[in-house]
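Apologies for my clumsy wording, but can you show me some protein sequence, whichever is easiest, together with the matching structure tokens, please?
=====
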Amino acid sequence: MQQLIGCSVSYRIAVGPQQGRKVLTLQTMPAVEADERYAQVAKEAGFSLHAGVAAQAWERDKLERLCRYITRSAVSEKRLSLTSAGNIRYQLKTPYRDGTTHVIFEPLDFISKLASLVPKPKVNLTRFHGVFAPNSKNRIIVTPAKRGKAEHKASDQDKTPGERQSAMTWAQRLKRVFGIDVNTCSYCGGTNKVIACIEDQQVIDKILFHLKQKDRLPSSPDPLPETRAPPQPRLFD
């Protein structure tokens, strides 16, 4: 995997008979010179950092576009195509400074590039620095949820070692990911309490079968007789 990542960053072929060579690129000379915004782009060891975009506090639309750009997928399927030779041609959204507009990959090498983009399990993809870092003393002041190192110290005193290690319960994950709140009753709005956790598949099947049979029964197994008028008094002559 380290070899795949290294070849992906340096634009070299990772597998196949041409391993180690530079991938084929198509270049187009720009008609005009590059503007001044490229002066704020730094490149080092195959990585590039663009520091030419800034958003003011009131520019919420610009901030939203910037967040959408940052969280976009690594590969755009709209710019992928096949060449007549059966290779993968990827069109760049913005040409490079040297005029590169397309990159040509062999199918197997393209798969290796995709494999290098898959993150390792249990690896943080977002890292914060400064006051937003997890161990910062001022993080509790600047975050809207008031989460920080001071909060964990105060709350961890009442927790067991097992509770400190667990990040989130399954009920909290259901509510956060799918919007399903199992801790709240859907009929009365009260708070539900977990009394058991059943993991045996046979027991689960029996419970589900019983509930299905219960739903098929009529709502009132012993229906009351039809209503009738009260008895009329008998009249004597």
Q: What stands out?
A: The radius of gyration is 32 Å.
